[in-house]
Specification:
Layout: E1 2-4, E2 7-9, H1 11-21, H2 23-32, H3 34-43, H4 49-69, H5 73-95, H6 106-121
Antiparallel strand pairs: 1-2
Helix pairs in contact: 1-4, 1-6, 2-3, 2-4, 3-4, 4-5, 5-6
């Protein structure tokens, strides 16, 4: 347990914050690199890609907010896990790679598993 001033941060809190914060750059990336995002969604078979990309961005913002605020954590974590498993499958379909550093599905799958653990502990 980490204590900061009068607030104690448990391992579950830390996992919740990590799972929540990781959504922020993904949502921002869909907004700032829209054409690349649309191309990915198109390649993954989501047509038309723009509504799917914007829906994904909205889902990521809502899930980040819920996890960071610590509100409805179990439900948000289960939904996050399902969402990230879909993202991992889409990444695998597009790239046909496992290792994240070369564009594979390893990272969203690991993140999904972290969300499953968070949901089970919350």
């Amino acid at each position: 347990m980490i204590t900061i001033a009068s607030y104690s941060l448990t391992p579950v809190d830390l996992l919740r914050l990590v799972c929540g914060f990781f959504f922020i750059p993904h949502a921002i990336g869909k907004f700032t690199a829209q054409e690349a995002s649309f191309n990915f969604f198109r390649a993954a078979g989501f047509k038309p890609p723009a509504p799917f990309a914007f829906a994904a961005m909205g889902i990521e913002v809502v899930l980040a907010a819920l996890l960071l605020a610590g509100y409805q954590v179990s439900a948000a974590a289960w939904i996050s896990a399902a969402y990230l498993l879909i993202a991992a499958a889409a990444t695998l379909k597009v790239t046909k790679k496992w290792l994240w550093h070369i564009g594979g599905c390893e990272y969203p799958l690991f993140w999904a598993l972290c969300c499953v653990v968070l949901a089970m502990l919350s």
